[in-house]
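Technical annex B. To support the medicinal chemistry partners, we prepared a structural model of the target in complex with GDP-alpha-D-glucose, based solely on the information shown next.
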Amino acid sequence: MRDYSMCMDGRPLILMSNRGPVGFVADEDGGLRAQRSGGGLVTALTGLIDIVPAVWISAAIENGDFQVAHEADGDFPIEGAGVSTRGRFVVMDAEVYDRYYNVVSNPMLWFIQHYLWDLSNVPDIREQELAAWDDGYLVANELFADAVVEELGTNPDAVVMLHDYHLYTAPASIRARAPEAFLHFFVHIPWPQPDYWRVLPPHVRNAIVQGLLACDIVAFHTPRYARNFLLSCEDLLGLEVDYGALTVTVDGRTVAVRHYPISIDADGFTAMAAGPEVRAEESTFLRRRRRHLVVRVDRTDLSKNILRGFTAFDVFLDRHPEFREDITFFAMLQPSRLDVPEYVEYVERITALVSMINTKHGNTDWMPIELRFESNLPLAITAYKHFDVMIVNSIFDGMNLVAKESMLVNERDGVLILSENVGAYEEIGAYALGVNPFDVEAQAEALHQALTMPYAERRARGDAIRQVINENDIAKWLQAQVMDIEELRGRAVLPPDAA
Ligand code: GDG
C-alpha cells in the first residue's frame, strides 16, 4: 500500500463522522469496555488512520462515551492504530441528538436520498420537523464544527475529511471560521436528482447544498451521484457548473465534485473468511444446507428491498415446483434503526411475509426461508462462502459492500443478482444478473436463470467480478482521494482523469 503520510506531507488529518471507530460501554461495576464499531464507513477509514496521524471526531453515543468525554476532556487514544490516532467525542443533549439523528438524518435525509418517501402520504413537514432542523440538525452540526475549528487552532494545516449525511451543514460553519482550511466531504449514499430535494423547504435544501459547497472536494461513489449533485447546484441554487471538469463555482471559489467507488480490503477480508471465527460457524451451517442455497445479508433497511426479494422467491417457487425441498433461502438481517417507527413496521412486515411463504410452500421437513434477525459477521461471511445465488436487490444503495465481499470469498462459483440501482452495479453489473428492483417477475426469473446456469458460466462471471474487486480495492479508493487532495491543495482543479 502506498505511504499516505508522504501524500499528506506528514500533516495531520481530522476525520469526522457521526459514529466513530470506537464506542465505550459502561459495565455495572463502573468499568468501561471499548467496543469497535462496525459498518462499511469505519472499516474503510481504519486503513487510513493506521498510517496517517489523525484525530477522529464523532458523536458520543454509547453510555460510556459520555464518561470518556468528561474524564478525558473529550479526547482519548484509539488503540490499535499504527500511528498516533486520537478520538474526540462531541457531546450533545439527548434531545438535540434525537432531533438531529432520529428526525432529520434518519429518516428525513436517508429517505430522500434513497427515494423512499411515498409522496402522496408522507412526509408532512410540520412544526416538529422544522424544529428538529433548527434545534437538532443545525445545532449538532455547529457542535461538530466547533470541534474541528478547535483542532484546526493547533493544526492549521490539517486536512479535514467529513463523512456522510449527518454533517451537511458543518462545512459552512467551519469555512466561516477557518477560511483557509482544506475540507473534503465524502457522501456514502446516493445523491438523488434535484426535484426530489424539493420535498424539503427551500431554506433546508439550500443549506444542505450550500453546506457541502463550503468544501474543496465533494465526493460520491459514482459518476451518476456526482452528476446529480452538479444538477442540484445548477437547478436549486442557480450556480455555474462545469459537467466536463466536474466543478461548481460559488462565491469566487471552485469546488471539485468527484467520484471514488468505495471498496473493501480484499486481502484482509479473504483472510477473515479463512479464519477461526468463520470456521467455527461453518460446520453447523453446512450440515443444514440443501442442494441449492440462496442468500441475502442486509440491515433491515427499507432501501434494501427485502420484501420484494422474498416475493420474488415466492413467485419462483410457484413457477418451479421442481426445486421444492431442494433449496433454502438463508436471510440474515441485522436489526437497524429501531427508534424509527417505519423500521419497526418493516421488520413486522418481513416476519409476516416470510411466515406466509413458509406456510404456503413448506412442510414438516422443509422450511423454504430461514430468517435470522441478528448481527453476526462470522455467520454472514460463512453464508457468503457457500451461496449458489446472492441477492442484492436494493431500491437504491450508495455502493453496497455485501455484493463485493460476498462475491470475493464465495467458494461455489455463486451467481450475483444485482439491482441496477446500486453503486456497485457500475463496476460489476456486467458480470452479475442485473435486475430492476421493482420488477418482481424479473427477480424470480433471475433466480431461475442463476440456479440453472452452467458451472462454466458461473465461474467466468464470478472470476470477472473478483478481478474487478481485487484491482479496485480499498487502498485504491483512499489513494485516489489523497492524491486529489494533494493536487487541489497546491494548484487549480485538474480534470478527474489527470490525477
Ligand atoms: C452504507 C451505504 C455503502 C454484514 N452482516 C453483518 C455485518 N455486515 C457488514 C457487511 C458490510 C456492511 O456490514 C454493510 O455495508 P453495505 O455497504 O452493504 O451497506 P450499508 O450498511 O447500508 O452501508 C452503502 C456503505 O455505507 C459504505 O460507503 O456501500 O451503500 O448504504 O461490510 O459485511 N456487520 C456486522 N454484523 C453482521 O451481522 N457487524
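Notes passed to the chemistry partners:
The pocket of GDP-alpha-D-glucose is lined by residues 38-41, 188-189, 262, 297, 299, 334, 375-377, 380, 397-402, 405 (CB under 6 Å).
The chain has a mean pLDDT of 92.
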